[in-house]
Amino acid sequence: MADADDVLDLVGDIYDAALDPLRWPEVVGRAGQFVGGQVASIFSKSPIAGGGDVLCQSGIDPHYCQLYFDKYVKLDPATTGQYFAEIGQPIAVSDLMPQDELRQTRFYREWAAPQGMVDFISAVIDKSATTAALFGVFRYESDGLADNAARMRMQQIAPHIRRAVMIGRLIDLKSAQASAFAEALERMTCGIGLVDRLGRLVHANAAGQQLLDAGDPLFVRDGRLAARDGRTDHMLQDLIVRSGGGDAALGTGGTAMLMTSQNGLHHVAHVLPLTSRDRQAVGRAYAASAAIFMRRTMIEPPQSPELIATAYRLTPTELRVLLGIVEIGGVPEVACLLGVAETTIKTHLRRVFLKTGAVRQADLVRLVAGFMSPLAS
Q1: Which candidate in 92, 105, 189, 275 could, as Cys together with 121 as Cys, close a disulfide (CB 3.0–4.6 Å)?
Q2: What is the C-alpha to C-alpha distance for residues 322 and 361, in angstroms, rounded to an integer?
Q3: Is residue 374 in some structural domain?
Q4: pLDDT tens-digit profile of 228-278?
């Protein structure tokens, strides 16, 4: 059993990888060992197109890796179940089908068995209407089938991997060095604001300053970064304070904030601590304790979101839950956004499913996408 210091060390390295992608293979391997497997990967695949790609892997035989996406991804009996899992939910192949049934499949006989694999446990870290990105860990004969300990560890580590991957996608850095960050900061297309422990804005890149100059949904008040919406601002200030306490202080709950401006445009913000490990160099260079990454969301209804509410008779809270699930993806993050318990979000989500006729979260993504303007870029 890994001790607390080992877990903190792993979490710190995960966030360092957000700024230094060369760290990912080693970090993914350690995360796989933490969950309880010898081989791990971050990858994407589509149950609709029957394809996919490896984003990062550790320990996988390159031949079998290529073979999977060239041929066997379409034969993998777990693909559909993995896609429909909630973001962050640990799910093993052994949860989806009995072991004796799995062993009879062509996928197992020709791809998994020759490698000695008996199970695979994963968690979705991002999802679109057609594709899911997952962090997964392979289990061999010596590891046995995924057990409750593996599920608990996956649930513990997956939110940090998700957070780091999403931030890494936004900034696309080649190094975590302060000089490299400073050089890349101004050319980043996403808005970035650097704040100190009190929430005071110490620097913003051009994209971030443009967003702040607009004053909605984020603005600067008495030198401090703030959100127009009171509930969102409370969450923002809480995340900034917790970021000052290091990586572990953020916990495994949601750190993505969905913000809606007065003109109806949606933005998502992510918080990355700059007080731990290699990121401290960036923090010291700017006297900052956290970086706030801001971007507009991809899905924008053509008119007011109330059109969706009217069409499906959704209450205001149900509408916010629907938009939160579509834009952010995870029940824990939407719960943090609305300041309620996860069980409350799940209750509202069940009502949304009932009213819209949707069965899975992917159906909700397609539903909202149907309200997009055909002229949207």
Answers
A1: 92
A2: 9
A3: no
A4: 988 889 988 988 888 887 777 676 665 567 787 887 777 888 888 888 777
CB atoms within 10 A of CB 299: 15
Bigger pLDDT: 39 vs 360 = 39
| Interacting residues of 160 by C-beta distance below 8 A, sequence separation 6+ | 11, 14, 15, 247, 252
- Lookup: tokens for 128: 């679109």
190-220 pLDDT, tens per residue?
888 999 999 999 999 988 999 999 998 999 9
Is the domain of 16 the same as that of 67? yes
* Cβ-proximal residues to 235 (8 Å cutoff; 6+ apart), any chain: 257, 336, 337, 339
Nearest to 327 by CA among 364, 376, 377: 364
Q: How many domains does the chain have?
A: 3
Contact 344, 335 (CB under 8 A): yes
Question: DSSP character for 72?
Answer: G
The CATH number of whichever domain residue 41 belongs to comes to 3.30.450.80
Cα 313 from chain centroid (whole Å): 30
Of 169, 218, 160, nearest to 27 (Cα)? 160
CA–CA gap between residue 377 and residue 350 (Å, rounded): 32
Question: CB under 8 Å to 175, separation ≥6 — which residues?
Answer: 19, 20, 22, 181
Among 267, 296, 325, the domain-final residue is 296
Expressed as residue numbers, the domain containing 109 is 4-171
Please check whether residue 152 lies inside any domain of the structure.
yes
According to DSSP H, which parts of the chain are helical? 4-19, 24-35, 62-70, 79-83, 93-96, 99-103, 106-107, 148-171, 178-185, 206-214, 230-243, 247-250, 279-286, 306-312, 316-327, 331-338, 342-356, 361-369
105 and 218 co-located in one domain: no
80 — alpha (psi -120 to 50), left (phi > 0) or beta? Answer: alpha
Written as six digits, the tokens of 67 are 């073979």
